[in-house]
Design brief:
The structure holds two protein chains of two kinds.
Chain A: E1 7-11, H1 15-29, E2 32-36, H2 39-47, E3 53-56, E4 64-65, E5 68-69, H3 72-81, E6 90-94, H4 99-109, E7 113-116, H5 122-135
Parallel strand pairs in A: 1-2, 1-3, 3-6, 6-7
Antiparallel strand pairs in A: 4-5
Helix pairs in contact in A: 3-4
Chain B: H1 2-23, H2 28-43, E1 47-53, E2 59-66, E3 86-87, H3 94-103, E4 107-110, H4 132-137, H5 140-144, H6 150-159, E5 163-171, E6 174-183, H7 191-234, H8 240-254, E7 259-264, E8 283-288, H9 306-311, H10 336-349, E9 352-354, E10 375-385, E11 388-398, E12 400-407, E13 425-433, H11 439-520, H12 526-557, E14 566-569, H13 570-580, H14 582-588, E15 592-596, E16 600-603, H15 605-622, E17 628-635, E18 644-651, H16 673-679, H17 685-695, E19 699-703, E20 712-718
Parallel strand pairs in B: 15-17
Antiparallel strand pairs in B: 1-2, 1-6, 2-3, 4-5, 5-6, 7-8, 7-11, 9-10, 10-11, 12-13, 14-16, 17-18, 18-20, 19-20
Amino acid sequence: MSQNSLRILLVDDDYLLAKGTAKLIERLGGHRVAITDKPDEIFQQCHSKAVDIVLMDVNLPEAVWEGREVSGADLSRIVKNDPETANIPIILISAYAMVSERQKLMEISQADDFWPKPISDYEALLLAIESQVTKH
Amino acid sequence: MDRHAGEGIQKEALLYRMTNRIRQSLELETILMTTAAELRSFLQTDRVKVYRFEPDGSGEVIAESVARLGLPNSGKQRLPSLLGLHFPASDIPPHSREMFVKARTRVIVNISAQQITLNNLGKVATTGDLTVEEVQKTKIEDILQRPVDPCHVEYLTNMGVQSSLVVPIFHGEQLWGLLAAHHATPKIFTDEDLLIVQLLADQVSVALGQSHLLSEARAKTRQETLINQISTLLHTPQQVGQILENVLKTLVKASGCSGGRLYLHSTDPTTATQVYTYGDQPQIFLWGTQPQKSATGEARLLEDEPFWLHLMAKPNHTPNINPVGAADRQWLPLSAEQFSIVQAQLSHLNCHIVPDLYQEPLLASVAATFRNTPIRSILVMPLWYGKQALGGLTLFRDEIDTEIFWAGRFDPDDRNLRVRQSFEAWQELKLGQTPQWHPAEIELVQAVGSHLGMALMQNRLYQWERENRLLVEMRNRELDAARNIAEEANRLKSDFLSSTSHELRTPLASTLNYLKLLKEGFYDNEEELKEYIGVAYQSAENLVAIINDVLDIAKIEAGRMNVQMKLVETRPLLEEQIRLFSIESKRKGIPLILQCEAEQVYTDQGKLKQILTNLLSNALKFTHRGEIRLTARNAAAMSLTGDWVEIVVADTGIGIDTNQREHLFEPFVQADGSIKRRYGGTGLGLTICKRLAELIGGHIFLESEGLGMGTKVRLLLPQGQNVV
């Protein structure tokens, strides 16, 4: 159990929603989930190697980085473009679930996978999380 | 031999000197005066004159040299000056003129004692007895050797001439005039003299030819200058109307006319052609003297008369002899025969000339309108481009007064019976003569006309091309605009769909999450259980609210929202709204103040309530201290006509960033993205308010001095005073 236990960073600005998601992942998959919606915290966590995978929401109305409003897709790209954090897998989880939006978001974010909100099949998500971590 | 050679040289030198003097000028008048002077000085005669024939056979002395007695300036002459005097055609009748043509040589008469130098004594007939045909048939030797007509003897005697030498002057093959030397006493002319005179006459012929060429060249230059001037005018950057007016003015002046009209057919074949306007209607430009309106005062164009209609007819257009409204008018329709005459003249000349409009039966219907004008003659030139009839140019020429100085009185009916006894000059004044149109003038009008035709066509094509281009551009712009609107609508729809999808998925995700936690039994205690149920329930409610709002918007956009407009008492409606929010108001400690000054409003009661509920709910949500005022009053709105009721919801809340204000009516937009989370709501409230307000004939405005400065929403609704 502890061998397979992953350190997951869940980025979401809707705290109640994120709390539910985190609880389900922890209880169903046995992983540890940290919740944040602050860009500096995300980068710090990634740099400290305390994160195995990031689950990233896209709509983050309060997120500002270097004076600019940023979305989850922007934050994902920043993580991916930093050689020190580039190998951390990122899965986008967004309510912007339409195909065209999805393609555009994947392009911008350079993320590894995309899951639409709401998540109806947590078991499948957990398999995807584990396979991404194994891949990297 | 030597003597002959010497004489030859002397003769040549003399001829050379004389021709040299003649050639010093290209001006005909100077040439002829010089010729007369040189010849008189050579022959030592009393008078040498140059006589020019007119087309009618009469003639005029146009150059002369007269010897004076004694001192050159004494003024006394052996023979009187005839310069400028006209002689009737009968003085040198056709057979005499024909004789000059045939003989092409001198006619010598020595009147003194009936002595004739060259004559055939065996011949009895004199020139006076011969007809033109007889002269043509008679052998030249017989003509040269004949007795002088006794009449001519008397004629010369009466003129005071005793001897005479006459040589014809030719212009090409045509008898142009005579070179005549008269002497008051008998004088013998030697063969030498005759030869010199003949050679001199030949020189005059050459000079005539040159002078003719010169005047032709001059006329041509004048014509080219005028055409250049006109084509420059045609291409000046002015209004077409202004240009055509100037061209007409220039042409009328240059062609020696007193007035002119330029008539352009309508470019639109369906338009009647008797209207005087611009644009697609026929156009008319006038300059100078014009005919007057008819006695009945009809404003009828000349160009609507059959005469003009026929001349300017479009090829496929059968001239309408009875145009609109002309049923009661007296018309003189052209017969087929008359029409073919007109057409024949057309094809021959390209322009039609009526020398005397009062003599032209086809113009009888309009002659009266010319009565009070000096106009006598008309030239009509139809304007064509290829086979396209463009209209017509009409020029007017006034009648003229002529004055002729005749040499002695003569009786036209009695011409050959009595020889004139006196050659005393008298002036004949002829008033109201028909003006002449010289071929050069007609040519000029034709040249200008064809240029005008080309320029008009060019202009029409240009206009047509420009109109088409504008039309295409306009259509393109319309299409662009329509496409932009469609694209914008499409974008808005897809944005709305995307936003709606997002906004529905978020509460749904929460609901599902907590239901799954409950289902899996992932709660540690009763409190956590209650919390999970509460969040799931709240999320589901939120979802329903959004769905209801989205459905409302969809209903409004689909036009399926029923509106029932009527006059509504304002105060009770507003009081009910205040009551609705009184509990929340007390809970938050924010007083709701009502101030109602408007009695009634024309609206849909349900829709107005929905709007006000939305606005008051927003105001309470975004206000943490201060107060909320709900006011209503009658107002006239700036930039909106009519009488309005202004309902204002003003709060002292967080206010709106000026940059955000315009977007707040868009779906799912809140002044700050974070606010939505903190304050809840569907994000569709203001969108629905705006749509509803428009639906009930109102307007909604959002005002805020900025963040922290409170918000004021103004709703303008019709008073409905005129509604029963």
